[in-house]
From TrEMBL:
One of its GO terms (molecular function) is ketol-acid reductoisomerase activity. SUPFAM superfamilies: 6-phosphogluconate dehydrogenase C-terminal domain-like, NAD(P)-binding Rossmann-fold domains. The keyword Nucleotide-binding does not apply. PANTHER family: KETOL-ACID REDUCTOISOMERASE, MITOCHONDRIAL. GO terms for biological process: isoleucine biosynthetic process; L-valine biosynthetic process. Signal peptide: none annotated. This is Acetohydroxy-acid reductoisomerase. It comes from Jaapia argillacea MUCL 33604. The keyword Oxidoreductase applies.
Length: 345
């Protein structure tokens, strides 16, 4: 059994942020939420700079009263702390070329995802601190839960302790954005990356496959597309099950289901031994994720993701899933039928 240390507000000293210049590189989902939280915690607006290219995000930051700097080199020169909050796939290009060369030798660099740190895609000086403060929430919830006065779940780690002061700084910054209110879990870039990519590349692909195959089997047995879509996800029953699992317990939530359902689910789960699945999962974790194979392959196609139409590999995957599977085709028909019906009523 392994249990992690959990840090609370009382472990963090906000005084460490006094007089520091804190730069937010990016004002999107996480950047907007974290910068506002930090300011509302009491960090002076003059200490905060939003470094952003000229776009709608920069306008949003200005409208919220933040000082916006479009020249990343200038922002880097004055930064004591920089939160890297632009999309993961553009971080190496933007940070390494425009930010890193001008950054102070003892700066604290904060990431919200372990990916680029674990795969060593960002250039840091050995004297700098590299810390991860990774909310387990979308940006809008990071903000709304802070405003409500409750916290949000978050991972915190020090992945390079260049100054020897990495942990106290990581905790002060976590507290500043509201992440130690309900407890920030000690983690690492490796752990965060492994779990994140595993969910994305092993867990959810299997769930998509299970739904796709179940749909086809039940359809072949005479079930209608309409009934299947509602039975399987459009009723929102699966969403309610996961919500109850989070609130009450992964297994305990089953007690809300009928006795027939409880018996079917629990006995059915024991009939599946999981041996092959475990082998498959281990393969994905070790031979695709942790060994850097996925990262290498993704880096090769990353620039193609900005393209329009079928040249963008993501668009092509969407097209195949939506147009070449029975589930995708059926859902499209059901949804257009529902839209037509609601339009005519
Ligand atoms: P986002 O997609 O909302 O980022 C938008 C920001 O990036 C804007 O400020 C935009 O101007 C800037 N940007 C985009 N492309 C750029 C480019 N080519 N050059 C310069 N600036 C560019 O990013 P998001 O979703 O907030 O993610 C930031 C980090 O937070 C990532 O590391 C992500 O993994 C992590 N994270 C995100 C969560 C979420 O709620 N989306 C949850 C937890 C962590």
């Amino acid at each position: 059994m392994t249990s992690a240390k959990i840090y609370y507000d009382s472990d963090a000293d906000l005084g460490l942020l006094m007089g520091k210049t804190i730069v937010f590189l990016g004002f999107g989902n996480q950047g907007a939420a974290q910068a506002q939280n930090l300011r509302d915690t009491g960090i002076h607006n003059e200490q905060i700079i939003v470094a952003n290219r000229t776009d709608a995000y920069a306008e949003d930051a200005k409208s919220k009263g933040f000082n916006v700097e479009h020249d990343f080199g200038k922002a880097a020169e004055v930064a004591d702390v920089v939160f890297i909050l632009i999309p993961d796939q553009v971080q190496p290009r933007v940070f390494n070329e425009q930010f890193a060369p001008k950054l102070k030798a003892n700066a604290t660099i904060v990431v919200a995802s372990g990916y680029n740190v674990f795969f060593k895609l960002l250039k840091f000086k050995p004297t700098q601190d590299v810390v991860m403060v990774a909310p387990r929430m979308i940006g809008s919830s990071v903000r709304s839960l802070y405003v409500k006065g409750t916290g949000f779940p978050c991972f915190v780690s020090v992945d390079q302790d260049g100054t020897g002061n990495g942990l106290p700084m990581a905790l002060a910054l976590s507290r500043g954005i509201g992440a130690t209110k309900t407890g920030a879990i000690a983690s690492s870039a490796r752990e965060e990356t492994a779990m994140d990519l595993f969910a994305e590349q092993a867990l959810w692909p299997n769930i998509i496959m299970i739904f796709r195959e179940a749909f086809s089997v039940l359809r072949e047995a005479g079930c209608s597309d309409e009934a299947l879509c509602y039975e399987m996800w459009m009723s929102k029953e699966p969403a309610e099950i996961f919500e109850a699992a989070a609130d009450e317990g992964f297994i305990t939530q089953l007690k809300h289901h009928s006795t027939v359902s409880q018996f079917g689910q629990l006995s059915g789960a024991f009939k599946l031994d999981g041996v092959e699945m475990r082998k498959h999962f281990k393969h994905i974790l070790h031979k695709q994720i942790l060994n850097g194979k996925f990262c290498e392959e993704f880096s090769k196609i990353e620039t193609e993701l900005d393209k329009e139409g079928p040249e963008n590999p993501l668009n092509e995957l969407y097209r195949r899933c939506e147009e070449e599977t029975e589930l995708g085709q059926a859902e499209k028909r059901v949804r257009s039928r529902l839209a037509a019906a609601s339009g005519s009523s």
